[in-house]
Amino acid sequence: MILTTQKINDSYWKVIVNNPPINLFGPEFSEELMVLIDEFEAAENLKVVVFESAIPDFFIAHLDVLKATGFPKGAGKTGLSKSWPDIAKRFEQAPFVSIASIRGRARGLGSEFVQAMDMRFASKEKAIFGQPEIGFSIFPGGGGMERLHLLTGKAKALEIILSGDDYDAETAASYGWINRAIADNELDAFVENLAQRIASFDKKVISEIKSIMNERAVNPTDEQIMDTQTRFFEALAQPEAAIRMKNLFAKGLQQNSDAELNLGKYL
Amino acid sequence: MILTTQKINDSYWKVIVNNPPINLFGPEFSEELMVLIDEFEAAENLKVVVFESAIPDFFIAHLDVLKATGFPKGAGKTGLSKSWPDIAKRFEQAPFVSIASIRGRARGLGSEFVQAMDMRFASKEKAIFGQPEIGFSIFPGGGGMERLHLLTGKAKALEIILSGDDYDAETAASYGWINRAIADNELDAFVENLAQRIASFDKKVISEIKSIMNERAVNPTDEQIMDTQTRFFEALAQPEAAIRMKNLFAKGLQQNSDAELNLGKYL
Amino acid sequence: MILTTQKINDSYWKVIVNNPPINLFGPEFSEELMVLIDEFEAAENLKVVVFESAIPDFFIAHLDVLKATGFPKGAGKTGLSKSWPDIAKRFEQAPFVSIASIRGRARGLGSEFVQAMDMRFASKEKAIFGQPEIGFSIFPGGGGMERLHLLTGKAKALEIILSGDDYDAETAASYGWINRAIADNELDAFVENLAQRIASFDKKVISEIKSIMNERAVNPTDEQIMDTQTRFFEALAQPEAAIRMKNLFAKGLQQNSDAELNLGKYL
After folding, report:
1. Residues A169-186: pLDDT tens digits?
2. How many whole angstroms separate alpha carbon A104 and alpha carbon A114?
3. pLDDT per residue as tens digits for the range A11-65
4. How far is residue A63's CA from residue A66's CA, in Å, rounded to a whole number?
5. ipTM score here?
6. What per-residue confidence (pLDDT) applies to A69?
7. Which of B149, B155, B220 sits opposite A119 (nearest CB)?
């Protein structure tokens, strides 16, 4: 099991991500997440879900590039492709609130995972963000081209995606990538308090607030999400991507290595 | 009189809000504001209006919930409902500039009041912001679902509205809720200088800048504003709202009480 | 020559702006820029262009108001008016990345110039930004009414444009006007590293990222740009503009003067 759910009470659940060594996001992760989101949607009283990592240096490292083509095929409940795009849309539309509490690296699909949550809080000292795809001759394919600019504006999204570099939590907060960077020793108490607080309110009102806000604010369209995904897999099939990946695997990619700790520098 | 206008000169007027004990926004406040905005629109040379509070701890506490159904009925000049939605739209479209200079609490409709101004400056030490509606089993009904996310982005608007919690001025500034948090002993001079400065420019250009910007930038639609207002009054009529309000009135709601000073904690 | 291109290598070019005394943007500047952008577009391997100023106190002071009607007429490649609007659109749509590295004043068209780049970095100590048009009884006519609010949000764009005042780099960064304010002694290394980094990636991917982002994010429409330009030249032809300009020329406008160094105060 990669994902373990702690049911604090009927209203507030916590999900611990534990996929050693570096919390890669592969087909198994995606399948467990699809089971979980079915369970979340079926839980009548569920108001808040918090995601945390069990691995100190990694929240979700990135897509498991060796298994990039092994994800479940077909359309999910939302009509989007059955795996991450469908799941992300369901979090957006859910009648419960999703919160990412981030320590360690959240790069690529890890960054796109937290972008799909309703809100994001990160350890000032221990969280690192990146969209390193350009270093593999590809671009963000899991929503980063659609959701990041809604958080940061276009200029900063271009900087992040075109540099492929690592960003600390304070810079990420000042750019709008996350809601707030919080001192590491205060992060858990902050998120716990916020989650318990939201869980104390009426589910009907929580769900109406999310639903009205989704009507008022700009969200990615299904067409944009699928168009990018198609182009992403085309780019991934180009020889340039294979060459750059081979070089990075030789340096320790997808292992608990200096290359993964400081991926920004290695690209 | 709740609202007193100081006409510094032909171009620059200041409005002092004084509705003891805590500057609640009720039908009388709304009616005085409707008279004032008629006067503003008729003043040929008026370029800047600054709103301040006469009550140290409260800018505008929130809607007077005991009088929530007593507001003037019918459609105002803009076609929106005759009271706050009509007034807010007229500030947006006005040929003069509106500035909120904020000390004390601006929660609920008080927060929505400042969101409808063209710009907002607040005392770093003394201003507190909140959208506490969720604690009453309702949601923002006076523009908060439409205007807050335009200032802060969706993720932070959801955090603010779903937490119902209090935010200090520096956090509000970093979130985009206000233009800037300013040291309390510098706030008056800053706003005075800005207001006098704008008042020294040509009214025709000021009005053209506002008009072009309203065409370029996203503003709430009339449909969104009215849809939320309808749903707001439906939510307010639910028994959950009555129960939560009764509990809060027992603790000092709508009085100059610890509950009003620290409403975020009491919800 | 106002614009000198240093071709660091095939992928990374630097352009130095040198139009003493204060880097005014006049017809000659515009014509050189039109030649340059043709060259940029034709350079098959060009991935990054960085703009810098050779004049310590001025990045680009503003439009040369004495030559405001002397710009090349007719439609450019994009269909927009042949000079700045056409050039700005071409930077936006270009398959290469444009970066402004800013020391000194960037006001009016200077500010609009940097807004048209993909990203902007500025010296914390030495950069100053402003949209001073209102002090001349006009308003931003070169994209400031369209691009600034996309960077800062409407409330801050209104504050900037209605005040006409000077903003230091840290305030500009906190408002989103620029990506980041960087200590003066670190700015060059930061931009050099970012430019070299982007230049090390595949041009095809760089160009696809820009193209997808332009489809996803909001950009000014051609109609908005041309509508504002038309209204700008109408405002410029009003007697109020001539009077305000005459007063400012008497105080040192368009010279290396205290008036140009501290234009915000003089308006």
Report:
1. 999 999 999 999 999 999
2. 13
3. 999 999 999 999 999 999 999 999 999 999 999 999 999 999 999 999 999 999 9
4. 9
5. 0.98
6. 87
7. B155
Q: What residues of chain C have any CB closer than 8 angstroms to a CB in chain B? A: 134-135, 137-139, 145-146, 149, 153-159, 161-165, 174, 220, 224, 228, 231, 235, 240, 267
Interface of A with C (CB under 8 A): 134-135, 137-139, 145-146, 149, 153-159, 161-165, 174, 220, 224, 228, 231, 235, 240, 267
Q: Which residues of chain B are at the C interface, by a Cβ-Cβ cutoff of 8 Å? A: 97, 118-120, 150-151, 173-174, 176, 179, 194, 197-198, 201-202, 204-206, 208-210, 212-213, 215-219
Express as a percent the part of chain C with pLDDT over 70.
100
pLDDT above 90 as % of chain A: 98
Closest to A47 (Cα-Cα) out of B137, B121, B162: B162
For the entire predicted model, the pTM comes to: 0.98
Q: What CA–CA distances, in Å, run from C191 to A92, A194, B92, C100, C114?
A: 36, 39, 40, 9, 15
From chain A, the residues in CB contact with B229 under 8 A are none
Chain C residue nearest residue B96, CA to CA: C162
* Amino acid occupying residue B243: I
Are C65 and C27 spatial neighbours (Cβ–Cβ below 8 Å)? no
β-bridge mates for residue B48, sequence order = B12, B97
How far off is chain C from A172, nearest CA to CA, in Å?
12
Average pLDDT (A98-122) is 98
What gap in Å lies between CA B73 and CA B229, rounded to an integer?
A: 13
Tens digits of residue pLDDT in C135-156: 999 999 999 999 999 999 999 9
Q: Which residue has the tokens 């240093």?
A: C6
Calculate the dihedral angle through the C-alpha atoms of A50, A56, A60, A66, rounding to the nearest 10 degrees.
-150
